[in-house]
């Protein structure tokens, strides 16, 4: 693992200022050659859904056989939003001149000329549906890489169940990634239930493989919160191993393994998934889900799990929105945030993202057509 | 008539992409050397009316003898909006220091110095009142050209009556011109009453005289809509000849001639006038009026005529506002709308406007003073 | 006293156009090397107060011994607004990671590393509390100049009392300075009570000492307004000597001396203080106060004094906001306001401010750290 560069001595724990050239920041162009969560599966139906992703205006719908489709939401003819039209068979029909487009973006019919010119087409976006998620490829069609899609069997295989939620966040997506690799804010932002004292000083083990940052931390012999119903069958204290990794700008995977102190130790596994999909440079679709391998059919535990997630993640969202506003209003251009040693995971991530963004820029922005 | 250039083969009906250099588009500077509808005659009174036209903040009022006056709505002294002041005789009195301006923009009095310096003046705009319309010349005073004012006797002469309406439209004015020369959107935007099947495939005859685009189409033997009261005395079927022309960026003239199938054919004439006055590059004052030479004194027919116009033109307005928003949000700069053969009138118009805008630019923007 | 340059003859009273190069205007950078009113003393408490001044986001609070403190409202670590945190002893605690800052901007503690790195610091702003006002130095710490603070004993010494008020004004601060040196708007903006006829044609005597503009005017033998309770003991008519000066961009000092016509003349003195603190280039915190040396303990006179001030100053504020909007919307870049001889005080002030702004620019903007 690379050393955290830029240590400037003084105190051992202080590692200097963020470097705009080496770390991704709010001005770093959004990365296109990745799969992003576009929508929950149930949001995409036979009625058009409009959503902006990486600044692109996109319309989603399902064809007659149930496949999800995504098209640039701007008719090739007179720029009317296709999402204002209707679905007819496998096609979306523009509400201005009735021009019909197929799910692949090709034209099905221009009524006024009773033909379907090849040149009349809109961009179509590759989609992959996996369990609750519909993923969208935001790069060019020539660059589509299914190998970049994060496998998440815990959302599709038996033996698992999950809860999920969504926030529209008025902030750049990077702040959320930083936040997720940082435990030290827990006691200050998340208060009593989640923000246990052991978080503030926890020093996760950070490693980087290629551009993927991993972080893990083991808390031994911790007491179970009495209100934590999902863990009712565990014998306190427990060991909690938290593992996190960030396979792409589009997803942060957290895994928590609780092992109890009963004679025959029981183990509970949870995956806490955060998918920040940039809407624009300053706003983000924040999808989250928590999958678990225990107490599968229990609405009360579902509700508890959802409530804990929704509360904590909303606290983060509010923090990040406040920060976005502060930054937007600050006219000083020389301000550089300070970094401290507990930011190591976040800093490694911003470096990995800076490398990825630079590579994407060198390769050339994919031309969508 | 010039051929529609840029035909790229493929299908005969497809004529390629809009060309930013040859056709006016949303970035084309608004043209100043024209008469635009500024207001309805009854809007301009002895109380100041504030309205923004071609981005100019303008105040309108009437002098004691009833003449309409228009001044730049910014006091020459300290920039207070004159429209916040009061009318006193033939002058408007600024609400900040009481400076009085005459209808020609010259100063009448600066109270604090009890004189009227020649240098203290505001821009005044030439106006012409014709029937319900007050027209304003937005170019320089040296360029005023009364020959450019479209004559519309059907609003002032006996034997005619009219209804009228206004929309504030959050869109560039060009989209409205395109829309008005295009019949193929009727079935999709205007639904049952106006959007008859014969519209979708109609091919109007387009011609260009100088920079004026003409379009006409004859529908023979069409059934009269039963709900169309104004035509109650006509014998169905009728022939409908629709003629349109665009004498300036400020006005689209439509003329509809219905001839019925009675032994001694009766004829009804209607003028459908659309006056899109740019407020800014992205918003438009949309004045419309429908004049007719039949059933002159009939409030029910007036109401019907107004209702049909207001409904259909509002549908267009809503379409154009949606498009404006799509374009404003699209960060792609390489997008070019596709054109098809039924767009011929619109394309010829955008070319004529591009030529006119270029000429105006070459002549130099008129300096208002 | 320098002559008003730029007289272009024509009428003697007309002195030409404002010159952007010689006079400060809305685009002149806000001046930092001055003391500005930041807040009323009672606004700064043990709960953080957030306020934007010269575009800087600032948090104010009081330490345990009651001293006011002001810090840049952006945590040095992750840019969270410190004003969302809490006060703990003499420190403000960031709500994101619990980092503590002292009143001098130095770090008190970073909880996650249990130390207080020297490099982790935020800008602190020098403050001076004087009577009802808390003044803030917006320049660099090396440039702090207590000699620039305007002495105002009438707010702190015995024998005086005062009323005060605040407006948030959506306009650049310069317009207020112009307005305050101009009596000729009184009859048009302030109506009956304040806008006496003698104002419109009053010609104050203007002088400039260094960069400080002085203006004075004596109105002799004027009748006391019957509703003017504070002056009930004076014998009408009175002489009113009004003296004004502008020691800095942050303050306009007005002094009114009324001397009555009783055999043994009584004298009343009032100070009318206006402190326009720029929030941004286009908005202003407008603090005002009126101190008097007569009828000290009288709630009715307090209420009257406050009501007269609040009404008149709000009328000015509304005028200035209208002007700001007119200017913001006007796309013409060649517009120059006309000046007349009664603007002499205002013009001298804008010239003085232009010189001061230029000097500050030459000296280099102070680097705050």
List strands and helices in order, with pairings:
The structure is a homotrimer of 369-residue chains.
Chain A: E1 14-17, E2 35-40, E3 49-53, E4 56-62, E5 68-72, E6 86-88, E7 91-93, E8 100-101, E9 107-109, E10 127-130, E11 133-137, E12 161-169, H1 174-180, H2 186-189, H3 191-194, H4 197-200, E13 205-209, E14 212-222, E15 238-248, E16 251-260, E17 267-280, E18 283-292, H5 299-329, E19 338-340, H6 344-363
Antiparallel strand pairs in A: 1-19, 2-11, 3-4, 4-5, 6-7, 7-8, 8-9, 10-11, 12-18, 13-14, 14-15, 15-16, 16-17, 17-18
Question: Would you give the CATH topology of the largest domain in chain A?
Answer: Naphthalene 1,2-dioxygenase Alpha Subunit, Chain A, domain 1
The count of β-strands of chain A is 19
The top level CATH class name of the largest domain in chain A: Alpha Beta
Low-confidence stretches of chain A: 1-11
First-to-last CA distance of chain A: 40 Å
User: Count of DSSP helices of chain A?
Assistant: 6
Rg of chain A, rounded, reads: 23 Å
Largest sheet of chain A: 7 strands, antiparallel
**What is the molecular shape of chain A?**
globular
The helix/strand series of chain A, from N terminus to C terminus, equals EEEEEEEEEEEEHHHHEEEEEEHEH
The H-level CATH homologous superfamily of the largest domain in chain A, spelled out, is Naphthalene 1,2-dioxygenase Alpha Subunit, Chain A, domain 1
Percentage of β-strand residues of chain A: 25-35%
**Average pLDDT of chain A, to the nearest integer?**
91
Biggest contact: A-B, 27 and 33 residues
Instruction: State the strand order across the main sheet of chain A.
Output: 12-18-17-16-15-14-13
- Based on helices, strands and strand pairing, what is the structural class of chain A? alpha+beta
Tell me the count of domains of chain A.
2
Approximate helicity band of chain A: 10-25%
